[in-house]
Amino acid sequence: MANLHKIFIGFNEKLELTPTKLSYLKTSEQNIKKYIKQHFNEKHPELTFNLVRQGSYSLGTMIRTCNDYCDVDFGLRFFPFPKKLQPVTLQKYVAEALYYVKSNTPIHKKKCIRLNYRGNYHIDVTLYGLENFSGSPKLATKDGWEDSDPSKFKKWFEDSGGKNLSQMKRVVKYLKAWSDYKGKGILKGVVITVLVGQHFVPDKRDDISLKQTTIQILNHLRGNWSCEMPVSPFDDLIEKMSQTSSVELESRLNSLIHDAEIAIAKNTNEEKAIYLWKKHLGKYF
Description:
Number of helices: 10
Radius of gyration: 21 Å
Helix content: 40-55%
Shape: elongated
Largest sheet: 7 strands, mixed
Structural class: alpha+beta
Order of helices and strands: HHEHEHEEEEEHHHHHH
Distance between the termini: 19 Å
Oligomer: single chain
Strand content: 5-15%
Number of domains: 2
Low-confidence stretches: none
Number of strands: 7
């Protein structure tokens, strides 16, 4: 019986961002904070904010993709709430501040300001207004303010993992690696994170946990093709997935489960098990 738990733990380590990439991200974070602070102190001193990490960077589920690319999310939280400003105007203020970042031209997207970096990564800066510290923030978009609360999502995720949070994070990373390599990005990282948080099956072995969690995810999708955000705005994250993509996703999940069951079977040796998992998880496995 091939027990690949230790190999999966090694795989998890290989999925970590390189020290060089982490150094780049830290420098970029410091520069973004510095330039926005300078610009707002000079042009908009009445507006106060703080910069926080969010998304997979905050959750500890970011991975090194096959092409060594990553995307990072930062949130600018404005308090008091900038009631006199249209959210698109606030976005423009931040874009103006980020023109000072060397070698980058800020891209004003619907829900964020994006900076593309030569180090094979991009950073999205999203803006929020806070009415008070106990309430939910509002996300600034080109179309207006929207309900969105990354902090509550993080708490939901951590509560879902409980005492098995570390393993649940690893399972998210394994499925992100699968999606990057075999799924061709058919599932976004946030969708994988939500589905794992809702259907995670802990086990003393990561290979078994991954297999069982994937089975539960596929069973859910077959019975109810949806992935509802567990916090405001409670939208269905896969509602707009095309029929072709949904059929392809089910096929690829089936293939992963099929080979996982063979890999874990009692009569499968370690060499064959590694081969079967590698077919789905890519070059870092």
